[in-house]
Amino acid sequence: MASFNLLLLPGDGIGPEVMTEVGRVLTWLDKNSGATFETETDLVGGSAYDAHGESISDDAMDKAQKADAVIFGAVGGPKWDSVPYEVRPEAGLLRLRKDLELFANLRPAICYPALADASSLKRDVIEGLDILILRELTGGVYFGEPKEIVTLENGEKRAVDTQLYTTHEIERIARVAFELARARNNKVTSMEKRNVMRSGVLWNQLVSAVHKAEYPDVELEHMLADAGGMQLVRWPKQFDVIVTDNLFGDMLSDVAAMLTGSLGMLPSASLGAPDPETGKRKALYEPVHGSAPDIAGKGIANPIAMIASLGMALRYSCDMGDAADLVDGAIADVLASGARTADLAAKGQNSVSTSDMGDAILAAMSKRAG
Ligand code: NAD
Ligand code: IPM
Ligand code: MN
After folding, report:
1. So what's the ipTM on this one?
2. What local confidence, expressed as pLDDT, does residue 274 receive?
3. Which of 74, 87, 105, 335 is deepest in the core (most CB within 10 A)?
4. Nearest-CA neighbor of 268 among 336, 315, 334?
5. 74 and 151 share a domain?
């Protein structure tokens, strides 16, 4: 029987609340899926800082390196606004991404039929939407050096972040984009700002070169990233796979989240390169949303992005496509039944709690599994 070892890092704010629902789904899968899941839980983010002065411990990093997959909640919050930059809650997440070399971040934005009226956009703009934002996750301005604040001789301060990409970083993310597109609707839109950024020029050239040499069967278009943001809200169904850098991908995926009705809906998978010997990839799965300090502790967070992230782990790290389909199908059933957490509920409509939503998804999974 297949057995998987998962590291759960709930984090801060609503992270632990939505991770509780993932724990319940894992218990269900343990009983009913034919696979077993061994889990370990550790601290990350502000909760790790409070416990030992850093946002992730070496011990937790070691567990992450060894796990079949890391399931990550969310980090951050106003409590840690003034802690030193290097140990901010977000630094724990960035270290995980960098040290595990999780360069490919898949952020699918799917509009469930039942939510076609939950978006702030008109129904016909988002009905049937199924796009994938592929964000480069270990390069660009997030990690380029120098990255510092220095005091100049005249007493002024100067802050520097460096947008930096090398050939292999661009080529490998381009290949992932074309591979993903081949399994979907065969179209890639690459977004950068080659009109003002050198890294945009190189990005554009290399994506075109990889396309010409290795994936001429896939449709490729280039778009300036600012125009891409506009097109995402004008007519998002024109896209299939969008490939873009670390910072543009961060911003464009929050925009895409709102096409689906709520930031509480968007899951993600962060994948490394396959090991040449075993073929296995390091992987981390997390919702796109953050720790939502404004609603933390109230038991009203939407757990769907977190549960759907576990679904992506089943698909990409456990080779359990059927179980992943079961999770996604159960989410669709529950939304079709009208259950809504507060972020999705229409004005005046009753909403359900985080654990009610978890209950409903588990019941729908049992029903589907017969
Ligand atoms: P956020 O995503 O936490 O919240 C933005 C808005 O969306 C809030 O109004 C929040 O209530 C709502 N929201 C988010 N997730 C929801 C859910 N599951 N259900 C219902 N409503 C939800 O973004 P923010 O407020 O800009 O950031 C808060 C903190 O989270 C910051 O410290 C930030 O750095 C951090 N953050 C962490 C991650 C992560 O851990 N991956 C991602 C984004 C932001
Ligand atoms: C995300 C978040 C992170 C990012 C933060 C918390 C470091 O916004 O995953 O989208 O900027 O990448
Ligand atoms: Mn973000």
Report:
1. 0.98
2. 95
3. 74
4. 315
5. no
